[in-house]
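Exercise: predict the fold of this chain.
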Amino acid sequence: MTAAASRVAVLGAGAWGTALANVIARAGRTVTLFARDAATAAAVTARRESRRLPGVTIDQRIAVAALTERRPDGDVILIAVPAQALRDTVSGLAGAIAPGTPVVSCAKGIERTTRRFMTEIIAECLPEAVPAILSGPSFAADVARGLPTAVTLAAPDEAMAQMLTHSLGSAAFRPYHSVDVRGVEIGGAAKNVLAIATGIVTGRNLGASAAAALTTRGFAELMRFGKSYGAQPETLTGLSGLGDLILTCTSPQSRNFSLGVALGQGRSVDEARRTGQLAEGAFTAAVLVDMARTRQVEMPIATAVSAVLDAGLAIDAAIEALLTRPFRAEG
């Protein structure tokens, strides 16, 4: 099972899908990039560029097709669409893929309406597939340009996870394999919410010390939540957990961090969201808090983010609530 797959289909011609298609094509695989419709596919083909990733040329070896006109037929299928759109995308593949085909979610989130993780949605909609997850500290622009990046690729079976790393990896794009699917999913989903909080601190000019403290305490929340769902500690402290949290909480390239900065600078939630950039954490915050509450996991930072985004809590009130929490032992 460690032999690499030769044909890879990437569904989603946005920034992340384009970046993944580029890096996989450079590794010598046959890659087809699928856009959502014929018009988008034609535009991408003509420009050899995604409008979501301007300035990055799509490798000439990559074929571009429309999901409305052709069914994906790769040995491995990557789903590079936003988390809240994943169900519609994979539902359209029902009956169209060979049994045992790995279907890899590349989204970082939890379905808001159902509390389902990405691989749970794949398993529900495509029972014949093998669900997997790719996550970790990675910006699409870096990956597309071939800059060094390391991520985690998790599948329920060790041999399948190894095969996927051989199929998608290269000198510049280094997937580390894992069987802790849930841990990888939790890290990717939770860090987006926490990055919004760190962005708020930055936008409010509360200083680097406050940002470091919030990131550290946010990681403690991520650990508590992950452990309650059976995640392995080494996964949470690895690339898809702590690694991704560090990246997302420190760079303006992060859409979630940038959303938080806008909120911290005084923009309304509606104004901050109207940037044209999708911040997955804005959709994940409320469901993450609900799931934590169900398992009696304390997540005050995530709760404050959710209250700001979904309940209209003022930024200063959210900050005051965190600063006036009782003193306690670290942990």
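Check your answer against the key: The CA atoms of residues 20 and 174 lie 12 Å apart.
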